[in-house]
Amino acid sequence: MTGPGDPCLTGPADRPLTVRNPLRHGLAAWGPGLLVMLADTDAGNVVAAAQAGAQWNFRLLPLVLALIPALYLVQELAARLGLFTGEGFGALIRARYGKGVALLAFSGLALASFGTLVTEFTGVAGIGELYGLSRDVTLPAAGLALLAVAATGAYRRAEQAALAFGLFECAFLVVAWKARPHPADMMRDFFHAPLGDSGFLFLAAAIVGSTFNPWMVFYQQAATARRSLRPDDLPAVRADTAIGAVLTQVLTGAVLIAAAAALHAGDRVRGLASIGEIGEALAGALGRDNALLVFSLGVLGASFAAAIVASLALSWGVAEVFPASGGSRRFLGLYAAGLCGAAALVYFAQDLVWLNIAAQAANALLFPLVVGLLIALTARVLAPPLRLRGARHAVMTVLAASVGLIGLIGAAAAFR
Q: How far apart are alpha carbons 398 and 404 in whole angstroms?
């Protein structure tokens, strides 16, 4: 274990070379980036994007697309740390800055994971109500399923199944294409963002929060560190992350366009009344019955994928921040409490759409803590050629500050 005073962590670079199957090894570099991004396109992301389209037409689409490079930059730093140190995010923070700072970072992870569970339960409840199923049935069933996955450690199979269903969200690409939004309308909305409107600012914070989630950093760094990779795998790791960043934001943009085409009512600001309304946005392209089925499978799959990835990140975070201290029992206790709390919050919520968006906006407040520590570690822990320096360091610092500022403005706007 590397100590707090070590000037440089090299990890995999110091491991002895072994003979490996080149194809199998090459494929091993792919996965964490794409998976964590697809999991990020969850119920919270879908609802926030649909609300943006329904209320503000294309006015928030430029923000969604502008976040692609920022998302890549953040997750690439996490992957780089995992590749070159062989350590998870929590372990590095503990080794470099001590237990107190590690606990602070872990608190951000735990809160973000709880928020993700809330949004996933809103997705489950909303889809259930679409088919006439009570929350008395859907919420306990979803909670027990997630607890069973955590208790048995069957993350991989559940993860793959959930992502397979989550790919039904690609149907939004078809709807967005058939909507054929006019470029002039998009440009008009780009130059007419109502920055003085508190509802617009709150939704902008939700869009940012749905894109940058603290558990994404913990997951991608730990997942990359746990693979048998070497420094020359960095290009593949970066490509994996870049494709994931583009895909998740394009899907989010497609949801926004589909909702704008189906639900936006001229100049009148109109919000979603229920999660089921998003499924109706697919009806014109796929037919109502097919649309609702595709939407339901996509949202449920993405919701469970996000819940599983966030849960795995939380499990690894517990092991990294609380090594050799009954981490497994500690995690299961914390996780069960989180599931019960999230399910109860959703059960009594009157407006699932607002609750979902509020949870996303909260992420924008939490993320600067995580990305700030990520920047500090990358600038100091890695070998000099790999460190974050110069213009890129300045860009990342501005990015972290901007996300925090958007979160604060959006939170303040919610109370106007």
A: 10
